[in-house]
Amino acid sequence: MKLLGNRSSRAWRNMASALVVVAGVGLVPAAQAETARATPSVTDFKLDNGLEVVVIPDHRAPIVTQMVWYKVGSADEPAGKSGIAHFFEHLMFKGTKKHAAGEFGAKVAEIGGSENAFTSYDYTAYYQTVSPDALGTMMEYEADRMRGLVLTDEVIGPERDVILEERRSRIENNPDALLSEEVDATLYQNHPYRIPVIGWMHEMERLNRIDATAFYDKYYAPNNAVLIVAGDVDPAAVKELAEKTYGKVERGPALPPRVRPQEPEQNTRRTVTLRDERVTVPSFQQSWVVPSYTTSQDGEAEALDLLSEILGGGTRSRLYQELVVKRGIASSAGAGYSGTSLDDTSFTVYGAPRGEATLDEVQSAVDAEIRRIVTDGVSQEELERARTRYLRSMIFARDSAQGLANIYGATLTTGGTVKDIAAWPDRLRAVTAEQVKAVAAKYLDLDRSVTGYLLPPETAQN
Amino acid sequence: MKLLGNRSSRAWRNMASALVVVAGVGLVPAAQAETARATPSVTDFKLDNGLEVVVIPDHRAPIVTQMVWYKVGSADEPAGKSGIAHFFEHLMFKGTKKHAAGEFGAKVAEIGGSENAFTSYDYTAYYQTVSPDALGTMMEYEADRMRGLVLTDEVIGPERDVILEERRSRIENNPDALLSEEVDATLYQNHPYRIPVIGWMHEMERLNRIDATAFYDKYYAPNNAVLIVAGDVDPAAVKELAEKTYGKVERGPALPPRVRPQEPEQNTRRTVTLRDERVTVPSFQQSWVVPSYTTSQDGEAEALDLLSEILGGGTRSRLYQELVVKRGIASSAGAGYSGTSLDDTSFTVYGAPRGEATLDEVQSAVDAEIRRIVTDGVSQEELERARTRYLRSMIFARDSAQGLANIYGATLTTGGTVKDIAAWPDRLRAVTAEQVKAVAAKYLDLDRSVTGYLLPPETAQN
Q: Is the dihedral of CA B213, B218, B222, B225 positive or negative?
């Protein structure tokens, strides 16, 4: 039961790998010449009750992943009810009218499978990986909890204690996480991406049965979900199973379009500084609000993906080569772009000093690299190398049933389509050096950035 | 038709006087020994339809002010509809079923009266000042537009252009205002006080008839309003008039409690910098989230009012005496506290350098004065002088029918009562030097502050 966030720190410090797979992946090729294995022939259909089903056959191993993605995340929460989306993810593991709490999980364990769930700003997903003969059983259980949960105060109270403890251990005990929360709350002046996925403590404490029931009734329904089945399966058989299980779940209320308050024009340069005695090495992150794959026009999202790769994607990037390898002033430096997002998202650079170097030096050097791209652009050769690296990393990310399912799920719940996934490699190939320079110049303006500083208490800097 | 705000800049630069009267006034004595004139005997009652009526007789001049205060402001707006409260204030001057647009205003002008309206975070108010014999007519018109407005697209469209132009001229053309907006959006991480009263441009552009009608139907009703009549009137006669006019207006829907998302714990020090070529002299403002009269406990709001007075209330304050008079490094320096607020509010200090002094020097000197109070407290003598000054300024503020009406209206629409207003002087008198020191230490922590810098483009500073 994972949280995907915070937004501004998604790429910062290369956080949990699951996060990188899902959030950092962008839109990934469904069919692509570079891959050695057969192109997966994706089947996409809808049940009568509105459930979208995507089947991605992959017969290399006798294993299948079922994922149900709900088109609801923390950015859809009612005002003052932060944390309800993630809280609900926990409640989905409680009992239903048919099955006692823990029965589903015990079944998965019994057959040697694995299961989990995660919540992000735009979606909440549940999955099991099992042997193909157990798929029908998994579908029965997953379909059952789609609308059959029994939500009583006896269930709600203790689980609320669990999420409060989760916030204490993951956020309150972690200066990085505390800083990232306030960076996000500063970066987004109007959009709910400003609010942490796990919720604000004082609001989480008050979440109750009424909130949970309203949330469940509104959002958990076949017409607000996508079922992804990836692995050693036959699409026709999956369709039959899906109709026998999910097909019997009643359609929920019609939902209005997912329109959230959008960002105003930003006019200022902002800083957010956290001094904490638990910090030994200072570091910074700097973020901008930029378009996502869903909101961008004219290939800007693709150009931002490649800008991120060239500037700070791994050890071959400009930032790493210049600051860590050549000058040796930084222990880390990089960039990240979270393109898979329903609304405008963030582009982030980060760094931490090494040895005698100061944080200021590192930040100036990072900034100089950005200015160099803004002024001189990137060479065709560098662009091609980055593009190849980036496409390869995407192929690697999808080289597992679950990786592929993640890509389809995240795309389909943030406004993308199966077609978009198929078209993505060509769109990435079409990006020009001029476009990379243009998005850097257009969006990475220091006077509209938010910089987060994580400092030890004694440091005089900033 | 005024906007009261932005929050963080309420006291900064001593903005419009109306703003100081209403927002800076705190809770003001209804009856007080120091005043030379007779204690006003305030009459407070409710009509059957829920309208609260406050009559404040003042027979010094043949004049009366009628104000209707609605318990709705920009912080009550639906998500994504910023500006609707202020937009609605404009629409209230349009036609009703009974009267054409402009008829009410023409009537006021014809009899030599004046009228206006203003919108803030927690309330929206309309008023006319006329000769007492015209009060009945004013009440008829005001009661008529309480639920009788005719809202058509022909009315909405052109008036939306007016508020968009108002935003352009007041905010977009004013670096001070632009900075203050983003300071507020940074200071409040969760509460709607983060959103400007006038609204974000991109949301204002989309406000339409459906939004306006929903807002009107929900909030404009006798059971969500307070009528204040102050001046040369007799309470019994006012009651009779009110029953004949407002008494006929139908009660609106029952409204839920005004519960807005509250602030989380803040852990960071933040800065917001606007560089603008229209700026010639740099300046700063620094704000903290602090309790209001409505949210504070154990006299903290009263102590914050006196802290503000001692630290930066006018030319006798520590900041002015030290920075402007003695050291001559600042052209302005002061502090402000906006205590009359439904939810937690802000405490602000500000300053601008003079001559060769730098902004850094001024900010350090302001901070040193705060630290001096945190460490050494204030003397009993200084406290008494400040208290006397403050009480006197309040007496002055209420020494007009409209000033008094403002105090009652702002208090009664932000969770206060007539009793609170009467008790306020004694509560202010009870504040000890230890309490002033305690609120400074508790709330004015640099590591939880937001500083706004307004700089010319060339300045290297910050």
A: negative
